[in-house]
What does this fold into?
Amino acid sequence: MVGHEPPLIAGRGYFRAVPLHVAPDLGDTVESREEPSDERLWASTTGPATVSPATQGIPMTVLELSRWQFGITTVYHFIFVPLTIGLSILVACMQTAWLVKKDPVYLRMTKFFGTLFLINFAVGVVTGIVEEFQFGMNWSAYSAFVGNVFGAPLAMEALLAFFLESTFIGLWIFGWNKLPPRLHLATIWVAAVATNLSAYFILAANSWMQHPVGYRVDPGTHRVVLTSIVALLTNSTLLAAWPHVIFASFVIAGMVVIATSAWHLARNSQTDVFRRAMRIGLAVTLAAGIATAVTGDIQARLMDSQQPMKMAAAEALYNTSDSASFSLFTIGSLNGGQELWSLRVPYLLSLIATLNPHGTVQGINNVERAYDKKYGPGSYKPVIPVTYWSFRLMIGFGTLAALLAFAGLWLTRRRRIPRARWFYRAAIWGVALPYLATTMGWIFTEMGRQPWTVFGLMTTAQSVSPGVTVSSVIISMTVFTLLYGGLAAIAWWLIVKHVKAGAPVQAEHPDGAEPLPVFSY
Ligand code: HEM
It folds into this structure.
């Protein structure tokens, strides 16, 4: 044991002392974790893993405000990210279809959805930059502790993926009418692949926080040091999260295509482009919805072994159970401790968590006792109502989007254009469903990991910047919120203007000598 003054964890109003372990998670079965046994000890208070005297007694409000700020800016940023991921590939497919089939409808589609993609990309980049600032601003203790590991995937994202993405998006925008058609097509494909690669690196950083691998804690500096970039980039948590996020992004892109097409079809405008676009959107949303559920199921089993508290908190399951049911809806106390009425699917929780209807799912109380033993006495429960409802709402909103897509495919069979007004209304408003689902997914993932920022290594309370004051967080949060409000208004105005204008009417053959229409805003 090398630590003396135990670091702190959030208590009521002020932090309460609990020892910080540098040990990894419970029941861990992970490959390639490097951790000398002598470092499975208490962390020293001199290292950044611990709380400096300056942070002791930080009023909860600084921590809470910093968490709110991170939550608001991240949720806002992730409104733009998934559409960029999904739509980049869809636009590349539309342009490919134009080159292969030589059908001008696909060119008009490419131009229309390509411009939508560009507006969204531009706003997404701006909001992403703020994310990086946050680490230095409000979470400097965290940054100092994990910088050596966490910085690697972030640097790879910026220098490799984002560099490729933005360069090739530029080539795509300015290459119309200048580059040979096939070379021009290659530029959007490179941009689309780089966008998805970018998501991989960002999720590598996040997955390391959920399940740290490929590191050791330096006994001199008490900071984490990267020992294996391969382990970090092949983290089992990452391999499960990436496809889930990519498919969820396709649900969003598909629903955006559906909603914009519905707006035009409801007005009988440009039906040649939007009937076909509608069918593409519907098929993509349904297929991606199913794939998101399958990958989510894989993630849930991994989560059960790596973060059993998160699984128990997803169901507000207090006592360890075999053949555990999954409650679709519960009326009872807010923390799930007392239940008055619930609608349950028998065996489903055991099935999700263990792939066995009679499998054992650890309860919150059991896991809490195990964590107490492993990490020292403290509270290791996340906010149960938040985890319980965010998990259900993620699945619920996603299921509604997939059902809507299924209904739409039925209504548009055999080249029909649906006449039902309810369908158009549902398709336009339904665009909110996958956005709500992804927001709930992130809230569940991040809130379910609490009280840790890096699971088993560093708590959120220990991560906050020592010098930050309540007023400074309030000022930065107000500025961000106002800026984001303005940005949202501009983005919304551009999107609505573009959607109303519809697809460009001029269309060309891929080999045609006439100039092709350029983007317009
Ligand atoms: C049966 C359906 C689903 C299941 C079983 C499921 C399962 C999960 C699980 C277990 C997590 C947390 C992983 C972790 O913290 O380690 C998660 C996160 C997430 N989910 Fe889902 N999910 C489902 C549907 C959806 C849908 C339909 C969407 C969006 C359209 C979605 C979007 C997300 C997002 C954005 C995250 C956060 C990123 C991540 O950790 O992967 N999920 N999901």
Q: What stands out?
A: The longest strand covers residues 326-332. DSSP finds 15 helices and ten strands in the chain.
